[in-house]
């Protein structure tokens, strides 16, 4: 096939399998797909890409199945070398990216575009100026072993592939039979200002004072550095309880806003625990969980009650 006038050989390199060799993993790089479904009764969470839309877009650009495994790269810093000729794309948080070929020539590559990574070439990702998580997909997908039907790394439970380290070899699966139909996709960039997230009242909003939901939606909350794939710890107006004591553990979902005794909410993300014992005052609507996953420490978030704009100031 030809991408931007360059013929790409997708067969296995003689004597070796196509792969990505990790030279530097950056602050945090994990293998992710769309996660493990229907294993909650075993105490196993879904995990998977924090920004599912970005992973799906990356795979569509390469004509991969939408659940193919990619690399989720937090705040850039990843450096990989190609074994065999590869096609790759970057989605999610846009970051500076360059390819250095074996002959020493270096070129920049675009975002949300199909790019050639020749055998022996090195791809380097810088720090994204906005957003948090960038997705590196390769045509054929990362062919890590499956655990309970998924190749996702769950940092809370420890299931899935180990985090890539310098020297890790990540095999690439067979190229799909279909070919990419576009070499570029316009995609909105993550927001750098105040991020607005739609919420619904949570199952335990009655554990809080009558004005607590209004308080949640009245002022921004800041994303703290104590945030990860499990959840975002937020700092802002205290959410006052109307009841004392704790709940028996009950099921949790991505987007749940759980409130510990401090009154400062935690927004659960992809690697959230299956159960929790603190009351959930509200739940971020599913279509905004991906947006939340791109919020970086120091960024401010505002919540808007879905279908009710009384608390937004608009």
Automatic annotation (TrEMBL):
Residues annotated as domain Carboxyltransferase: 41-312
Lineage top rank: taxon: Bacteria
InterPro entries attached to this UniProt entry: CT_A_B, Cyclophilin-like_dom_sf, PxpC
Pfam families: CT_A_B
Keyword field contains Calcium: no
Keywords (A to Z) from UniProt: ATP-binding, Hydrolase, Nucleotide-binding
Keyword set includes Protein biosynthesis: no
Annotated PANTHER family: 5-OXOPROLINASE SUBUNIT C
Name of the protein: Biotin-dependent carboxyltransferase family protein
Native organism: Microbispora bryophytorum subsp. camponoti
């Amino acid at each position: 096939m030809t991408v931007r006038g360059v013929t790409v050989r997708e067969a296995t390199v003689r004597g070796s399998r196509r792969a990505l060799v990790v030279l530097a993993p950056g602050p945090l790089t994990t293998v992710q797909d769309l996660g493990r479904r229907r294993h909650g009764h075993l105490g196993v969470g879904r995990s998977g890409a924090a920004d599912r839309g970005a992973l799906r877009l990356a795979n569509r650009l390469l004509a991969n199945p939408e659940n193919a495994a990619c690399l989720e790269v937090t705040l850039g810093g990843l450096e990989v070398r190609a074994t065999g000729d590869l096609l790759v794309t970057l989605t999610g948080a846009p970051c500076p990216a360059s390819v250095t070929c074996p002959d020493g020539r270096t070129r920049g590559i675009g975002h949300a575009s199909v790019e050639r990574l020749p055998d022996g070439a090195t791809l380097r990702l810088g720090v994204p100026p906005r957003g948090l998580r960038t997705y590196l997909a390769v045509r054929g997908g990362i062919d890590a072993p499956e655990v309970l039907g998924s190749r996702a790394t769950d940092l809370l439970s420890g299931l899935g592939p180990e985090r890539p380290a310098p020297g890790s070899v990540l095999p690439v699966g067979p190229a799909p039979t279909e070919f990419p139909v576009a070499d570029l996709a316009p995609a909105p960039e993550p927001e750098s200002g105040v991020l607005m997230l739609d919420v619904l009242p949570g199952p335990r909003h009655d554990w809080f004072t009558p004005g607590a939901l209004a308080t949640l939606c009245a002022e921004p909350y800041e994303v703290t550095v104590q945030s990860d794939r499990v959840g975002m710890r937020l700092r802002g107006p205290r959410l006052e309880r109307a009841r004392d004591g704790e709940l028996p553990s009950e099921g949790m979902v991505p987007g749940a806003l759980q409130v510990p005794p401090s009154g400062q909410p935690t927004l659960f993300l992809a690697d959230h625990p299956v159960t929790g014992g603190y009351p959930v005052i509200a739940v971020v609507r599913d279509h905004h969980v991906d947006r939340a996953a791109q919020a970086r420490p120091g960024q401010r978030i505002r919540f808007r009650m879905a279908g009710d704009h009384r608390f937004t100031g608009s």
